[in-house]
Q: What sequence folds into this?
């Protein structure tokens, strides 16, 4: 069992208890889950279990969508099914994904995971049969692979050419490639000044990011803000601003944070659990 399972399970119990107090009986049948599996749950309990926040949100929606567009090798499937994620037609993101505005991520709506990401799975009986979605079973979702792709994308986007590709698809105020080329010098200067976005934050510190800077039409301002944002994303995941060495994966339905913590805090590499 992964080292984060206990707090995740405890969190699920708390979420169910809180949502049970609600009188709202709305449901989203698109989830594909039969409430007969949990006969004492209300529909709101299921919704909260599938997408309720556990304060794990670490990547803004706009950034994740731009990463998916910019790096198809890291995110080959737009629905994230390559990571084993299960789509939910009634929610913008897969089962087990949550959404919340995060102060240190420019107060933008951001994506995280909850208990359901590792504790809802599918059983496939054949090509012509609808999969059975089961609550409580080990999921096919690989959280380390997903967050690994997100972190690699932050490091890649520190490269000027990749930043320009990213800017072409990021945010509501996007730019055509030829317009971005005209701002190449400003983008290059901003990256050269502070490539990791960590300048002035202090060891393990978070940057203060103005939401308007992340949407600014000024390329220099926007680039600096994005680099700070990537730094904050890594800090939230205990990832140093220098890429850590690769380590053996734990696989779907598992998450071992201690290897990352031991490296970021002590410089020690450990074997997977």
A:
């Amino acid at each position: 069992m992964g080292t984060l399972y206990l707090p995740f399970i405890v969190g699920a119990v708390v979420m169910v208890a809180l949502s049970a107090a609600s009188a709202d009986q709305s449901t989203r049948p698109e989830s594909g889950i039969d409430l007969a599996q949990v006969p004492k749950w209300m529909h709101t309990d299921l919704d909260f279990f599938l997408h309720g926040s556990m304060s794990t949100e670490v990547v803004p929606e706009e950034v994740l969508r731009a990463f998916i567009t910019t790096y198809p090798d890291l995110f080959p499937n737009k629905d994230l099914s390559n990571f084993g994620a299960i789509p939910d037609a009634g929610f913008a993101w897969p089962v087990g994904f949550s959404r919340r505005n995060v102060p240190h991520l420019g107060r933008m709506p951001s994506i995280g995971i909850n208990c359901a990401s590792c504790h809802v799975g599918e059983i496939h009986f054949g090509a012509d049969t609808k999969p059975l979605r089961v609550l409580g079973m080990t999921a096919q979702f690989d959280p380390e692979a997903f967050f690994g792709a997100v972190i690699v994308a932050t490091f890649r986007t520190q490269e000027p050419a990749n930043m320009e590709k990213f800017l072409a698809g990021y945010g509501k105020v996007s730019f055509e490639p030829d317009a971005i080329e005209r701002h190449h010098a400003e983008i290059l200067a901003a990256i050269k000044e502070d490539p990791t976005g960590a300048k002035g934050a202090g060891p393990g510190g978070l940057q203060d990011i103005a939401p308007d800077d992340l949407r600014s039409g000024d390329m220099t301002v926007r680039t600096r803000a994005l680099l700070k944002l990537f730094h904050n994303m890594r800090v939230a995941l205990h990832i140093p601003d220098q890429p850590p060495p690769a380590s053996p994966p734990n696989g779907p339905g598992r998450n071992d944070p201690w290897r990352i913590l031991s490296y970021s805090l002590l410089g020690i590499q450990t074997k997977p659990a």
